[in-house]
Automatic annotation (TrEMBL):
Belongs to the V-ATPase F subunit family. InterPro entries: ATPase_V1-cplx_f_g_su (IPR008218), ATPase_V1-cplx_fsu_euk (IPR005772), ATPase_V1_fsu_sf (IPR036906). Keywords: Hydrogen ion transport, Ion transport, Transport. One of its GO terms (molecular function) is proton-transporting ATPase activity, rotational mechanism. One of its GO terms (cellular component) is proton-transporting V-type ATPase, V1 domain. Transmembrane segments: none annotated. Signal peptide: none annotated. This is V-ATPase 14 kDa subunit.
Amino acid sequence: MRTRAPGSCWGGVGELNKNRKPNFLVVEKETSVAEIEETFKSFLARSDIGIVLINQFIAEMIRHAIDGHLESIPAVLEIPSKEHPYDASKDSILRRAKGMFCAEDFR
């Protein structure tokens, strides 16, 4: 059992909100791209989710939806998997951040 002090907050994976909606999706071979995208969009609309962690390989399947998310909260962070290494050139947040700076900013 986890406890917390009043007024503090903690994050968790594998939890249900007050409406019994999970804050995760386990993607299996049978999971459709439509279900992944629908779940991703539902996570973006929830006020109890501040960060969405998504495997970069799965993110590629719904890249248009990820690139279309321009809000800072929830933040969408792409992570590697054992089978698929992280590729910084595919990460939409990193691409946007690079667009904010020019080479002279680092001199």
